[in-house]
Amino acid sequence: MTNEPHRFALLQRLLHWLMAVGIFTMLFIGVGMVSTVTPKYLPLILIHKTLGVALLVLVLIRLALRLYYGAPPLPADLPRATKFGAALSHQALYALMIIMPLLGLGMLWAAAYPVVLYGGIQIPALLPLSDGLHTLLWNAHFYLAFAFFALVLLHLAAGMFHALVRRDGIFEKMALLPLQETTPAE
Amino acid sequence: MKAFARANPEFAAFASWAKTAPWTGSYAEEPYNGLNSFIFTNASGAEHAVRWSLLPSAEPVPISKAELDERGPDFLEQEITERVRTAGSQRWTMLITVADPGDPTADPSKAWPQGRRTVQVGTLVVQRIEPERDGPCRDINFDPTVLPPGIRVSDDPFPAARSSVYRKSYDLRTAEAEDYPRNEVVKP
C-alpha cells in the first residue's frame, strides 16, 4: 500500500454525480425547450438558464478541488493509449463544462436579452448587442451541445467498461458509495 | 386562407371586426388593445389578471376605405414620422382592464364583457420615430414574456408561444443580418 488515495475525495465524488445529473438534465431540456411552443417553454428556459449558471459555479469549484486533491493513480497495467484517451476526454469534458454556460450567457448577452434566473437573480451583460456575435455563439452552443452529449455517452460507456468488463477498480474511484463486492463465482 | 378560417373559427370574429372597424389615417389616432392577459401584482401583493390598452390623445379623424385605398403603401410610416417631427411628442394613455373571476383569461380570441374595472397606469410618450432600416430596434427581439417586476404571464398560453417562435425567428434572421436591406450611403 502506498499513501496515494485510492479514490477521489468525497466532495469530488459528490460534485461529480451532482453535476452528472445536472448536465444530463441540461442536454435534454436544451433539446426539449427549443422544440415547443407550449406554456412549458418558459419554465424550461428558466431552468436551463438557472441550472446552467449553477453548473458553471460548480465546475469552477470542482476544478479547484481537482487541482488541490489531484486524482488517484490509474492502474499500472492500463495501456498507454487508454491513459492518453482518458486524459484527453477528461480535459475535453472540463473544457465543455466551462465553455457551454459561457456560450449560453454570451449568446443571450449578444442579443440584448435580459438574463434573469430563478428567484429573479439578474446577470449583467458583459457583451454588447451584436447579431454576428449572437449567431456565432448560438451556433457554438448548439453544435457543441451535441459534441458534449457524445462525449458524455463515451464517458459513461468507458465507466461501465471499467466497472463491468475490466473490473479494474477505476469506476470505484468515482463511485459515491463503495460497491458491495459480491465475489463472483469463478 | 379559406381553409385557415374554416380550421380556426375564432378567426371569423376578427374578420368581421376588420371589415367594420372605423379607420383613421394615423397611428397616433388609433387605440391599441392587447389581446393577451397578464398577471399584475399590486403594492399589497394582490394579483389580478389584466389586459392592457393604449388610448390615443390625438383626436381620431375617421376616413373612408376609399380614401385609404388612394394613399401610398407606406403612408402610415411617413405620417407618424412627419407628425412627430412637426407636431411634437405623441401620447397614449395606458389603461388596464381587470378581469372578473371567470373571465376567459386563457383565450385571447374572446373579449371580456363590458363594464370591467379599468385602471389608468401610465402614459406612453413617443418623442422620436426611428426607421427600422439601420435603426436601433432592428437587432433586438420583441419578447412578450420579458416583463418588469410586478408583471408575469397568466394562464394565457400565447405569450409563451410567441416567445418561442419569436426567438426562433430572431435566431434565423440575425444569422442573415449581412443581407438586411440598408440605407444607401450617399456618395459625395
Structure, explained:
The complex is a heterodimer of chains A (186) and B (188). Chain A is mainly alpha-helical and 186 residues long. Chain A has one domain. In chain A, 67% of the residues lie in helices and 2% in strands. Chain A has a two-stranded antiparallel sheet. In chain A, a hairpin with a 5-residue loop joins strand 1 (115-116) and strand 2 (122-123). In chain A, helix 1 (10-33) packs antiparallel against helix 2 (41-69), helix 2 packs across helix 3 and helix 3 (80-110) packs antiparallel against helix 4. Chain B is an alpha+beta fold and 188 residues long. Chain B has one domain (28-177): Catalase HpII,  Chain A, domain 1, CATH 2.40.180.10. Chain B has five helices and eight strands; from the N terminus they run H-H-E-E-E-E-E-H-H-E-E-E-H. In chain B, the strands form two sheets. In chain B, strands 2, 3, 4, 6, 7 and 8 form a six-stranded antiparallel β-sheet that branches. Chain B has a two-stranded antiparallel ribbon with strand order 1-5. In chain B, strand 3 (38-41) and strand 4 form a beta hairpin. The longest helix of chain B has 17 residues, at 158-174. The model of chain B has no long low-confidence stretch (mean pLDDT 92). Chain A: It is a multi-pass membrane protein. Chain A: Its main location: membrane.
Task: Write a brief caption for the model.
With 186 residues, chain A is an all-alpha fold. Helices cover 67% and strands 2% of the residues of chain A. Chain A has one domain (10-174).
CATH homolog superfamily of chain B: Catalase core domain
The proportion of strand residues of chain A reads under 5%
Question: What number is the mean pLDDT of chain B?
Answer: 92
Give the CATH topology of chain B.
Catalase HpII,  Chain A, domain 1
What integer is the average pLDDT of chain A? 92
Shape of chain A: elongated
Uncertain segments of chain A: none
Report the order of strands and helices of chain A. HHHEEHH
Class from secondary-structure proportions of chain B: alpha+beta
**What profile does the largest beta sheet of chain B have?**
6 strands, antiparallel
Total count of strands of chain B = 8
Taken from the alpha-carbon principal axes, the silhouette of chain B is globular
- How many beta-strand elements of chain A? 2
Tell me the major beta sheet of chain A.
2 strands, antiparallel
Roughly how much helix do the residues of chain A carry, as a percent range?
Answer: 55-70%
Radius of gyration of chain B, whole Å: 19 Å
The string of secondary-structure elements of chain B, in order, is HHEEEEEHHEEEH
Oligomer: heterodimer
End-to-end distance of chain A: 26 Å
